Structure formats: structure tokens, C-alpha cells
Fold each of these.
Amino acid sequence: MEFRHLGRSGLMVSEISYGNWITHGSQVEEDAAHACVRAALDEGITTFDTADVYAGTKAEEVLGRALKGVRRESLEIFTKVYWPTGPGRNDRGLSRKHIMESINGSLRRLGTDYVDLYQAHRFDVETPLEETLRAFDDLVRQGKVLYVGVSEWSADQISQALKIAESMGFDRLVSNQPQYSMLWRVIEAEVVPLSEREGLGQIVWSPIAQGVLTGKYLPGQPPPAGSRATDTTGSRFMDSLMSDEVLRRVQELKPVAADHGLTMAQLAVAWVLQNPNVSSAIVGATRPEQVRDNVKAAGVKLDADTMRKIDEILGPVVERDPAKTVSPASRP
Ligand SMILES: NC(=O)c1ccc[n+]([C@@H]2O[C@H](COP(=O)([O-])OP(=O)(O)OC[C@H]3O[C@@H](n4cnc5c(N)ncnc54)[C@H](OP(=O)(O)O)[C@@H]3O)[C@@H](O)[C@H]2O)c1
């Protein structure tokens, strides 16, 4: 495993991290979840990403149990707050009340006294930014949270937060967690240049486009049994990735991966890691073999010709519009 700084902070994270959205507490059974976490640890992954909302709070519990007994100092545990975790009007968003309550639930479920990174899972248009940032800062002072970051915020929203933190003396954001893959490059135009200037690192999600970039989904054919596209919850998030045009072009990447002695999953993960503003690529997995496959992307270098070839193959199916970075217009 290779390690990178999380943005300009002193914290080191594994280049490849393991995340448990859709899988733990939902798509996969507890023993498979533990086997994946074990494989991640064996392969040198030290960084684990979850969220209060995943599997209706069950994902944090599964991760907490899977990591039980592992030396806490050898782990970086990341979680998030924003999406609804209960029926009440305050069980969501980034108000001081919900942040303070949600972190306590996360710590209890994860079985830890602190998380290494606490992330605002989206921008909350119904809470003044000062309120959220002061609550985050308080959590840092209380020692419940070591670093603070955001997820899927636009460049403008990150900029506003940095200005407020500067003028109020609050802890600075060190990271953003956006979707990023060969197919989804919307952060490149605005978020990455700002983050480079301001010292935020990207912890990118769905680097394998939820499995699509493994090439296992074939155009015009039903998805393979047991894959995310056959899972009732998981498939809801995959529609835009499953067009025949995307799947056909992805098949054409196979010789590129083979020329480099890489699997398709490794090529996909290696691709996001070529961007120096990426601190870590969070991979998901339903089986330990997938974790062992994906981690081999750490440290892989892709030359300019290969990067160009990938662009030519994917052509118009690559999404680049920065306006696609959006948070809900009102609280969910
Ligand atoms: N901040 C946010 O808003 C946000 C949103 C989404 C995700 N995330 C984070 O990012 C993490 C990763 O997201 P993701 O799970 O969508 O990432 P991903 O790595 O793109 O997709 C993971 C899925 O692809 C399939 N897969 C992975 N490796 C494979 C391999 N080597 N061969 C064949 N299939 C393989 C598996 O599903 P099947 O076996 O079921 O096909 C696996 O569960 C999440 O767990 C979460 O921590 C954050």
C-alpha cells in the first residue's frame, strides 16, 4: 500500500480506502462484510469510510464490529452527517442540534471515542454555514473529531466555508469527498483547482463506477447474478451508468488494461490516483477477492499516451459539467 497526505493536513491515509455504502448492513451478510474488512486490513488499507445514513445506520455498526480489536491508532475512520437518520425534522441536515446528536450515534455504533474525519455529506441550504462550521469546530475541540471535511460541495460552497473558517478562527476543511472516475470528471474544472490552491484533498467515491468499469456488465445483456445492478437498493443509483453506449465503450478499455498487466478494476482505480489532488480512492467490495484485486492499483503509474487512449475510447460518455455537483435544494 502507498500513503498520501489528506490534503495539506498532517494526516496520512492509504491511497486506497475501503467504504461500506450499499454493502454492509444491506447487500452483503455480516460474515462477508467482515471478510472484506479483514482482506482490506491484510492488504494494508488503513482508511475506512462510512456514514450515519448507510443502511439506516446499520453500516456503521457492522464496520464497528468488523474493526473491533484492531489497534485504533493504526486506523483512520471517516464518517459523515447530513442525510436523514430518523423520522424527526431535526434528524437530518447540518444544524448544530443534528450534528451534535449524530456524532454521538456514530461514535457509539463504530465503537470508538473519535473519528479521524467528519464530513458534511452534502451542503445544507437550510442552515447558516457559520452554525455548521462552529459545530464542527466544537467537535474538534471536544476531541470527538480530528479533522473536518465535506462531500459533494461545489467550489463556491467550499470557498465560502474557507472564508468563514478563516475569519472566525474555525478549524479548516481538509478534504472533499466527490464522485470521481474515468466516466465522471465533474470536479476537474472547478473543485480540483480550488482544492489545490487551498490545500484540500479529494477522497473520491465510486472510482470503479459501482462496478461498471470492471467491464462485467455487457451491453444488451442482463447484469451478472449477485452484482450491484441486481440489488434493489444498489441498482437505483446505477441507471445513468448502464446505457449500452457506456457499456460498449467500457469493453473497449479491456486491451488497455491488458497491455499494462492490469485488471479493469485496477485500471479504473489507478486512473483516479493519477490526479495528485486525490488523497485516496474509496473502493467498495462485496467479496474479499475484489478488495485484493482493487488494492493492486496502489502505486501504478499510467503514462500520458495511456491516459489519452482512455479519453479517446470513452469520448462523449465522459461527464465533465461542474454544474452536476449539486446538493438538494431543500433538506431531504
Ligand atoms: N460521499 C458520498 O456521497 C458517497 C456516495 C457513494 C459512495 N461513497 C463512498 O465511496 C465508497 C465506494 O463507493 P462504491 O461502492 O460505489 O465504489 P466502487 O468501488 O466504484 O464500486 C464498488 C462495487 O463494485 C463492485 N466491484 C468492486 N470491485 C470489483 C472487482 N474487482 N470486480 C468486480 N466487481 C467489483 C462491487 O459490487 P458487486 O459485487 O455488487 O457488483 C462493489 O461493491 C462507498 O462505500 C462510500 O464509502 C460516498
Amino acid sequence: MKALSILGSTGSIGRNALDIVRRFPERFVVKALAAKRSVDLLAEQIREFLPEAAAVFDEGTARQLELLLPAACGTRVLYGEEGYKMVAAWEPAALTLTAMVGAAGLLPTLAAIESGKTIALANKETLVMAGSVVTARAAAQGVAILPVDSEHSAIFQCLQGQRREDAAQVLLTASGGPFLRRAREEFAAITPSEALRHPNWAMGAKITIDSATLMNKGLEVIEATWLFGIPQNMIRVVVHPQSIIHSMVAFRDGSVIAQLGVPDMKAAIAYALSYPERLALGQPLPAFSSGMRLTFDEPDLERFPCLGLAYEACRQGGTLPTVLNAANEVAVNFFLEERVAFTSIPMIVRRTMEAHVPVDHPGLEDILATDRWARKKASQLASSYGR
Ligand SMILES: NC(=O)c1ccc[n+]([C@@H]2O[C@H](COP(=O)([O-])OP(=O)(O)OC[C@H]3O[C@@H](n4cnc5c(N)ncnc54)[C@H](OP(=O)(O)O)[C@@H]3O)[C@@H](O)[C@H]2O)c1
């Protein structure tokens, strides 16, 4: 029986994870949950899974949540940064699933690491903004960071039983998102509702927009460098619109190992929760029949400049990935609120990066200060691009 703490339990990854717990009650027990403000769903989850603790964004939300809970449920309701950290490090939990969205995941993830939890990491922004700090603290605590992102889970699986020094290249696949074939001149008119319709994956709003700009793939390149301790020049992004191959590793003898499956996050989440075992999920296999086509292409950096910006941030390192991440979060929010155009997202990120003087080998305080600075700068820029 593995005890879990789930951060971001009301989101797409969190709900999928709870579905796995529901199906395997003899294997998992939920000890703590966290969300931002979705109190109705969180209350439902608490009534079903009876965690010892739950955290929400602020005190007002905590009071709303308490009103929705039966007096006898016994769940301790916490809130704010301290509440999230306590839930992340909740004592009986052995594994913390970090499925909050954005930079908000950083401090709770560090709290979970400090208390020795195994991390099932969905919250890629944490590694993008603070990869050096997070991986150093995990190494110092002897804590494993297991990938939940399907591409990184695939790479992790391809590397099982292999010698790391035999790996020559990581081939990170990208669906290309909803605008893979859209003409560049039409990008400025793209609306949030169009960008939120991903062809293959059902995900939260922020990552769906990141997939449409290809920033998501850029964030994943940076995430992969930290998760697997590999240099950026070993990673090649390959557009594979069917999302059947979740990623591949090429070895120095010319062999390529790929991990395949239907595009559904359940398998990657379950593997991180039950590693090294695999659960009988009953997932369908990809349709290996005459109609199956697996195609590959190069990413188009002209139409998708966010990917190039992420390459640049990764190459330069220091605090530049922190700036990339923060400016992107701000720009995506402005786009979702219909305050800037789709094409403004890379412009806001680029100009914020250009205005930054990177700090080499940043500590946590440098990273948090840079994150604050970049959010302010990007918001000013976004306001000036406003519709
Ligand atoms: N979805 C996928 O298929 C997928 C795949 C790979 C990686 N990921 C990564 O997994 C993470 C979660 O993605 P998602 O698609 O599940 O997102 P989502 O559906 O938007 O869910 C986000 C979760 O985080 C909570 N949250 C949002 N802002 C917060 C804040 N400031 N403080 C605390 N909690 C906050 C939300 O609570 P409320 O509901 O209360 O707002 C919700 O529970 C992201 O980092 C994403 O990049 C997702």
C-alpha cells in the first residue's frame, strides 16, 4: 500500500491520478490533496478519499471548503504557501505527485524533497525554472524524481537496463499541436478557443496553449536535460503528429528504442506511481493495422518561435530559463484572457529575455527574485501589446 500526496488534484493530471487510485484501492491510499480554488470538486474528492489534509490557495477558499465538508470527515484544511508545503511533505505519504500548474509548484516540490518523498513530477515548470536547485536537493536527499510527462516517461522507460554512456541521442516527439499546418499569416487571428482544441491530448488550459505554440516542447527539452543529466545537444525534437511514439532513445550502435502507446496520460502517471511495477490498466493498444501511419517531420522554428526561445534559454542557462518560464506564464494568461494575440506570446517572452541580465549558477533566492522580476516585466510588455 503506497501512501500518496497529490498536489493539483482537481486538474487533468490530478483527476487521472485519482482515477488510478480508485481502480487500485489495494495499492494506493491518498493522505493529502491540494488544489487552488476548485472547492466543489476538491470537497467531492475529500469525501471520497478521506485524506488527512487538504490545502487551497488562501484562507477565504479554505473557509469555503470547510463549509462543504461533513463535520466528521476529519480532514485538516490548510491554505497558502505554508499549507501547500505541509501537504507536499505530509508525513505518512511516501510519494508526492506534483501536478500543480506553473511556478507555484516549486516551493511545495522542494518541501516534498526535503522531507524525503519520492517525487512523481508532472509540474515541468519547476524543473525549467529551478532545475539546478531541485536536482541538487533531490540528489542530496537521495530522493528519486520520476517523470510523469509522457515524453519523459518514455525516455525513462527506453533507458531502463541501458548504460547511460551508451545513449547517443534523445528523440523527443511533438504532436505539433493544432496549428501544425496553419499558414503563418493566419497565426495572429488564432483565438483561445481554437488553441484550446488539442488534436490528441486532453489537458489543462496552460499546457494546451503551450502545446499550440510549441513552448511545451521547449520546456520539455529543458526538463529532459535536468531529469536525465544530458546536454541539450543530445536532444532532438521530432514532429510526430499521431502521438503514438512518446519518445525514443538512439544508442551508439545505431539501435533506437521507442516507447509507444495510445495518447492517454494514464499509463505515464500509473508508471510513476507504481514504478518499477506496471499496473493492469486495460488500455487499448495502438491500432497496429494496415491503416496505421507513423510520420515524422522537423519542427518549424519560423512559425513556432517559442521553441527557439526555449533552446536559447537552455543553451545560456543560469536564470534565463526562469525568465522564459515566468514570461511565458504571463503571456499565456494574457492570451487566455483575450488581452493579447497568439503571436504576442513569443514576442513577450523574447523581449523579457532580452531585458534580463542572467545570473550564472543561481541559488533559490536568485531564482525567486528573477521569477518576480520577469513576471513584472512581462506584464508591462503584455499590457503594451494589449488589444
Ligand atoms: N495534462 C497533461 O496531460 C499533462 C501532461 C504532462 C505534463 N503536465 C503538467 O502537469 C501540470 C498540471 O497540468 P494539468 O494539465 O493537470 O493542469 P490543470 O488541469 O490546469 O490543473 C492544474 C491544477 O493545479 C492547481 N493550481 C493551479 N494554480 C495553482 C496555484 N497557483 N497554486 C496551487 N494550485 C494551483 C489547480 O487547482 P484548481 O482546479 O483549483 O484551479 C489544478 O488542481 C502542469 O505543470 C503541466 O505542464 C500535464
Amino acid sequence: MTSLHHRRHFLRFLAGSPFLARAFAQDSDPGSNLGQNAGKPTTPHDVLDVREFETLAHEALPPAHWGYLASGVDDDYTLEANIGAFKHIGLRPKRLSGVAKADTSVELFGTRYASPIYLSAVGAQRMFHPDGELATARAAKIKQAVQMLSTVTSIPVEGVAGALGAAPWFQLYMPAEWPETEALVRRVEAAGCTVLAWTVDILPGRNIETATRLARTDTRSCPACHTNQKMPMTQGRSNPPEANWTYVDKLKKMTRMKVILKGLDTREDARLAVEHGADGIVVSNHGGRSTETLRPTIECLSEVMDGVRGRIPVFVDGGFRRGSDVYKALALGAKAVGIGRPYIYGLSAFGQAGVERVLDIMNIELALTMRQCGAASIASIDRASVTLAAR
Ligand SMILES: Cc1cc2nc3c(=O)[nH]c(=O)nc-3n(C[C@H](O)[C@H](O)[C@H](O)COP(=O)(O)O)c2cc1C
């Protein structure tokens, strides 16, 4: 067990302490409901932070599904690096700033949302809860959050759009054959999607070793559920092996949707994305699920901002577990921040209500940090309010 794991267990122990919960409640936003009902959580409202949902999800899921959710690739270093990196970024608070209320709302591609925190693509969500992507959509609707729907969704885009009350952003895994890509893109466009996020970080394949090991400990018969199971949006092989930047041009020509590239981490790729007409970039390493020993995404953000030079919006995901993490990304220039595992932990533990609670907790923490740093709105978050510590 690594020292990071030891620390997590210690923190979870502390999080369960009624004494600590009371102390936190006194310091928290008077309008918030954090800090109430401390002890073993039996409802979403008992949960104090998103890492507590992780423990509950672990208890709720069979080993193979837990392994698929929680693991990264190889030795899981990128996964842990994403989460650990935030402690190397310090905040510079602004005292007596007079900010009594923080407005977390943002406009993304012409639509206003309550928060810059969005629900990133996670495939096959019925693996985690019987209501799957529908529960996520209902939570996103209530919380006015962006939902990015995976190509490997367990529920068709049309059904999810119905539950969300608007079409979700659609995450594309490109089918191996171009005519299938065209058919898929036309279908999601017809469903009303306005944003297409092409994920480019696992095209060469990956080694999901921890997930495989955990699946071997599962005593259930996997083929009993998985045989003959078809995903509703895609049937065939994924990822054209020859895919390159001309595919971005082809996608742009084919659709009116905003085309954003999910999974870029460097200045050079950011420049190429702009040159090829991408409408946005998601700085992402698939939550540590693509390539081992990558730099944490929060540390790639400034470099990508530099490559983009304000021409298109930059989003980021990977390892965000606190509102203060989100604040740091916004201060470094991100337009919005995606979460993956946190809301799936909430979904696994409590369905729709769990997803809602995860969004509430992170949004309350974000608003609190904004007030601490003197930001009344997302636009007024100051780059000078964060500082990178020497490692
Ligand atoms: C179980 C799981 C499934 C995922 N499925 C997809 C997917 O289908 N498409 C995709 O682009 N990203 C997928 N991702 C990556 C997320 O969109 C996101 O980049 C990542 O989870 C962010 O890191 P975080 O989990 O630390 O928040 C998945 C992540 C997880 C944990």
C-alpha cells in the first residue's frame, strides 16, 4: 500500500469523526448543508466529501465493476498523479474583499449553466446503477450541469436527451470505418447534440492491469451478463488505426456541432488543434486510464493555454475531488472542469440523488473558495490567486 493510500485511509477516518464534522460546520458557508448528520452515511446528505462516496461505491459494486471504475493503467501512477497534484498548487486568499456571495454560473458555447463543473463521459453506466445514464441526466437537469454522454452509453442518446430536457454533449469514440462514423455523427446531430467531443487519448490501446486483476477475483459469471449485450450507439470496432489530424478536418466538414478534442496535454497538440479548426480542447489523460506516467492534467493546463492563446476554450478533467481543485483550474485559465469517477461514486451509492449530492458538495466548496479568494463570479477569478509550489 502506498503512502498516498495510507493518507487517504487516515483522512477517511477523520472524515467520519463527529468532532471534525462539527468543527467544519462552524466554518462552512452558512447557507450550506455540509457538516450535518455526521457518522456512517445512510443518505446522500450524510456524505461530507466526494471521497466518502468512493468508499460507499466500493461497498456497493462487485469487484469487476469496481475495478473498471477505480483503476488506471499499468501501475496506476497517472491516476494517482492527477489527484495528488493539487496539493502542489497553493491559494493566495484575498481578505476583507466584501464578496458575500459567489456566482458560479458560466456560459459554454452559448448556453448558461449553474456551474463550471460538468459530468464527463463515463461508459456503460448501468454497470453502476440500474438507471445508468438516465439517473445522471436527471441529476444534471436539476443541477443545470453539462452532461457529456459516452459513445459506449448503455442508454441511447435520444432517451438521455429526454431525461436531461436537452441533448447532452456527445463524446465520440470513432468507429473504425468512416461510413459508420458519419452515421453516428448524423444520429447524434439529429438528436439535438450541439457539442461533439472526440476522445483521442486511447486510440493506440491501453493496459488496464488493475481492472483485469480485480475482475479475476469476481465470482460471478461475466458472460451471463455481457454475452450478446449490444451497446445502443455503436456496434463495431472502435478507432481507425490510421487516424491523424486530417480526421479533425473531416469531422469539422461533416457536422455543424462544435468539435472539441478530448485528451490533449501539450502546447504542440494544442496549436495543431487550433490550426485544424477544433472548437475547444479538453486537457485530459482519461483519468489516468490511457498512458502511464503522464504528467497530471492540472500541470499540463498552463502549457495548453499557452498553445491556444485564447482562440478557443480549454476544458480540463482528471483528479478533481474538491471545489478548491476546480478553483485552481479556473484560475489557470480553464473554462470548465470535468469530473468522472466522483459522480459515478455517487451514482453507484445512491443513484440520481448521489450524483446530485456530488455536484452540490463540489459546488459549495467551489463557492467557498471563490469567496476566500475574493471572486464574486467565475470571470473575476484571478490568475494571481494561485501559485505553483516548488516540488
Ligand atoms: C469508468 C470510467 C469510464 C470512462 N469512460 C469514458 C468514455 O467512455 N469516454 C471518454 O472519453 N472518457 C471516459 N472516461 C474518462 C472520463 O471522461 C474523464 O476523462 C476522467 O474520468 C476524469 O478523471 P476523474 O475520473 O479523475 O475525474 C471514463 C472514466 C472512467 C473512470
Amino acid sequence: MPSPLTPRQILERLVAFPTVSRDSNLALVDWVEEFLDERGIAAHRVWNADRTKAALYAHVGPEVEGAVVLSGHSDVVPVEGQDWSSDPWTLTERDGRLYGRGTCDMKGFDALALAALALAQERGVKRPLQLALSFDEEVGCLGAPAMIEEMARCLPKGRAVIVGEPSRMRVVTGHKGGGGLLCHVQGHEVHSSIMHRGVNAIMSAARLIDWANRRNAEGAAGPPSEVAALFDPPWTTVHVGTIRGGTAGNITARDCRFDVGFRAVPGETVEDWAAAFEAEARSVEAEMKAIHPEAAISIGRLFGYPPLRPEEGGEAEALARRLTGDNGSMVVSYGTEAGQFQAAGYSAVVCGPGDIAQAHQPDEYLEVAQFEDGWSFMRRLVEECAG
Ligand SMILES: [Zn+2]
């Protein structure tokens, strides 16, 4: 018999693995695999290219379609430069709160999901449960697509996905899609007194950045679509967060680099927006090349994930509403893996313990009461799956 572990003890173990996205998550994956194995649950890994990280998925219950999928990520954001009152990698309770990196985003839900799988295995279920534990979520939802693809191929097809990002156990039915580009404008350096013979990379970049300003103004002015109207703001935003370029006030800048971030409302895609940006860049580039042939604009893709569109009569929404009793309507502006599951043909919602306001913060915490609400949710889910 495996040693019985409470959800709280599981969370303690998970928090102790410093699974910052840039580092390996394999120690955590080893532990989770052993936890499941001890309970007779087979787990499967989906590796990254250099086998330094892995996603993990598992199936409990009869080999039939229609599973409820519990989806979490194993990685967390860094703690450097943050002022913590206690060790971020040691779960610490103070004043009804569980402090530690990842407690809220989202190892609290991961612990509950593992406890739910163990309970379902012990109790026996008619409707299967599946676990989907990804990596590299915090750096742009990079780890989930390969895992989702393999789950859909190798397991009896699951149907309703609960992505446990912090929502205070409210049912979130929609979020924007997101994506980012890195843009490198290469100009031609001359003395600024003869700037007409040079190509100023910063001033060319400014034209592309102003393209973003104009798109945002159009979005703000236009009437939103029905689904976009649910969001704040109700349009796709184009944002430039960093810029770097130039060497001196009297030299036309040879290089300018900036990032472009899109947050797309459902019904629009980051790919279309990125293509529109690229088209603008090509037109600016043509004018630059007319002055000097070596001038160029190169665009690299950073990441991209699809929006979560509220479903008509969605199965995941109905399930989550039954289990939480929440009938309010809620969409969020942060991205999750729910849109990726939906794009792969699953019904998906976001519902998890904790508040997004505590995510990524120094002294990140999960309220004990939220963790307990989450555990009640999981016990009701297992009861329902037991039939
Ligand atoms: Zn998260």
C-alpha cells in the first residue's frame, strides 16, 4: 500500500521542486510518476527536444471515451529580485494562507488533481479521469501542444477539460489568445548630417510601432463583435513592451530591436495579426532597401496560443457549473492551455483555486479556504464519475 498523502502533503512536495521554466522539471515528474505508479496508475511522458523536461499524462478508470481531463502546468516563474518573507520552495502556512512559489499558479490545483486521480483509482469510476501536466506554460504555453496531440492519439478520447489556473473556483469560459514576435530592424549607418543617405533603424521601427498604435485606436473605435464584447478591453490589442537600438545621437541607428505582443479576442487569430504586421514590415522594408540594399527587417516568432471561445452548451462548462454551483459568466484576459485543448477538439473551461492577483508575486500564496474548496470540487467530481 502506498503511504496515504493528503492534498496538502502533495502540495508540500510539489512546491519543494524549484521548477522554474528555464530549468528542468524532471525531478518533479519523477516524483509524480512514482506517486501514480504506487497507486497502480500508468503515466506517460512527452519529452522536449533535448529531454531536459517532460509533460506527463495519465488515465484512470475504464478504457472508454469521455474522460474528464484535469490540466495543470508544472513550471513556475522565477523568484529572483523578489522579496520573500519565507523560503519560496518551502510550503509555509501563515494566517490561513499557504505561501510558496507556485501555490496559486498552479501547483495547488496540480496537487488536487493528483489526489483526485488517487481517489478515483481507489474508489473506482465509470467515467474516466485523465491528468495532463505540462511544462513551459509560463513562457508562452509551449509545452502543452505536443502533450495534447499525444493524449488525443494514445488515450481513449477525453471530452471535458478543466484547466486549473487560479479563478477562485469560478467557471471561466473564455480568454483571449496571445502571441509575440521579436522584430529586428537593420538600417544603414551614416553621420546624421547626411541622414537621407542612411537608413535609420529606429525611425523605421517607429513606423511599425505606430502601425500598432493605429490598430489599437481602430479597435477602440470600432463596435466589438458579440464575443469580443465580453472582454476588457473588447478588442485585440497590439503591444510593444521593449525596444533597444542606436549607438549615438549623431549616427543613424543601424539596429533596432523591439517585441510585439498580440492579445486576440476569440474569432480572431494571432497568426492573422502576425501576418498583417509582417505585411506592413515588408512594405517598410521595401522603402528602406530602396535607399540601401542591405537594410532589412527580420521577424522571429516568440510564442503563440489560441483564444478560448465560450462554447454553446459546452460539456466542460456544464460539468464545472454543476460541481461549483457557479452560474455567473466570466472571461479573463490572461492566457491558458484551455484554448489549446479547445483547438484540439475538447470542450474546455478554466476553473481552479486561488486568485490570479497572487500569481507571479513575491510571497505568492493560496488561501487554505480556496484549497479546501478545490478539494471539495475534486471529491464531487470523483463521486460524479463513480456514477
Ligand atoms: Zn499558470
